[in-house]
Amino acid sequence: MQLTRSETTALRGLAIGLIILHNFCHWLPRCIDENEYTWALSRVQRLVLYIGDGGPHVVLNLLSHYGHYGVALFLFLSGYGLVRKYESPSATPRSASSHEGAVVFLLRHATKLWQLMLPALLVLYLLKTFYAGGWKWGWEHLWQLLTFTVNMNPHRPLILGPWWWFSLMMQFYLLYRLVLYRRGRTVLLATVGLCLALQGWATWESWGHLSNSSCIMTYWHYNMPCSILPFALGIWAARYGAQWLLHPLAAVVGAVVMVAGSYTPWVWSVASPFAVALMLAGRRLPLHWLGTISAWVFALHPIVREYTIGPARAGHVYAALTAYILITLSAAWLMHYLQQRLRRS
Q1: Cis before residue 119, ω within 30 degrees of 0?
Q2: pLDDT tens string 101-125
Q3: Which of 80-84, 96-100, 293-297, 298-302 has the lowest mean pLDDT?
Q4: Would you say 215 and 239 are in contact if contact means Cβ atoms under 8 Å apart?
Q5: Chain Cα centroid distance, residue 164
Q6: pTM for this structure?
Q7: Which pLDDT band, with edges at 50, 70 and 90, does 273 fall under?
Q8: What percent of the chain has pLDDT over 90?
Q9: 169: phi > 0 → left, psi -120 to 50 → alpha, else beta; which?
Q10: Per-residue pLDDT tens over the stretch 49-89
Q11: Are the CB atoms for 28 and 321 separated by under 8 Å?
């Protein structure tokens, strides 16, 4: 399977659109909790009843409940993009056993994440200092975020929730370069098998406690083992082809499995690659413009949410949502523009 650059950029736009809408909607008082890190049958039952009653915010609840699958699409695109960049015939050969090559690779990708984190943290610090009464997070929060270790802390001292993604992404860069880089099917499948075994054990251990946000399932869903499937699918598609993913029937099957996963934790735990198959049907949507600024949209949207969710909770839902989207997109475009200017200078 080969996606064009335009298609992958549009898919990034689709992924970030789902993520920012989900991250706003699931903080609204009338929206039903999603099954993202843990699973509870009562949540989808409430969603079905809510839809049956006709609202009043059906679309917002659907985005709240299922929008988090945008993360799975990002992971798929990350795995796909890494292989296309570093393993294609035009890529510069690097020995998988080369320590220097691995260090340079990891430092390069850590720097890319820091280039997003540090400006966003500076903006947040200035806003909190001069507008909202001071910085409220301790230095341990900042240190764990910048060292990509926050997800490994069971208590997850997060600064603005969505930034946990940076830690997860660094784990996948480590996994790719140290384990999967230029290795064959056996290593990839064995890695997925080990992660699925760990995920199955976590699901079994958490049975009866899956609605508890502090359970072991939540911990592993913040880390690499429970997010391996879409990332590995992206690697497989780039190396060996998976043209069936682009078949219209794959989108139908993906939708069915994604919804079925709402009713059982065992299907839910493996639903993410099926959700990716569904979302790949949107590869020709006119979202290239959004995909181009997706990195900055991700970095900045938690800050904008911090200052727009209050009016939404007070009842001005759609006015606050509109302001959230417009401010996020404007700020992301500005940061992208400045970054491009700095690179050219």
Answers
A1: no
A2: 899 999 999 999 999 999 999 999 9
A3: 96-100
A4: no
A5: 9
A6: 0.93
A7: very high
A8: 73
A9: alpha
A10: 999 988 788 999 999 999 999 999 999 999 999 999 999 87
A11: no
Report the C-alpha gap between 57 and 30 in whole angstroms.
8
**Cα distance between residue 177 and residue 94, in whole Å:** 10
Q: Do 179 and 187 form a contact (C-beta atoms < 8 A)?
A: yes
Percentage of the chain beyond pLDDT 70 is: 94
State which amino acid sits at residue 55: G
pLDDT tens for 4-48 read 999 999 999 999 999 999 999 999 987 888 999 888 889 999 999
pLDDT band at 139 (very low <50, low <70, confident <90, very high): confident
- Burial level of 135, CB count in 10 A (0-12/13-18/19+)? middle
Structure tokens at 115: 């280039």
> Over the chain, what HEC string results?
CCCCHHHHHHHHHHHHHHHHHHHHHCCCCCCCCCCCCCCCHHHHHHHHHHHHCCCCCHHHHHHHHHHHHHHHHHHHHHHHHHHHHHCCCCCCCCCCCCHHHHHHHHHHHHHHHHHHHHHHHHHHHHHHHHCCCCCCCCHHHHHHHHCCCHHHCCCCCCCCHHHHHHHHHHHHHHHHHHHHCCCCHHHHHHHHHHHHHHHHHHHHHCCCCCCCCCCHHHHHHCCHHHHHHHHHHHHHHHHHCCHHHHCHHHHHHHHHHHHHCCCCHHHHCCCHHHHHHHHHHHCCCCCHHHHHCHHHHHHHHHHHHHHHHHHHHCCCHHHHHHHHHHHHHHHHHHHHHHHHHHHHC
Tokens coding 249: 């029937």
Amino acid at 63: L
Residue 173: both structure tokens together: 């860069």
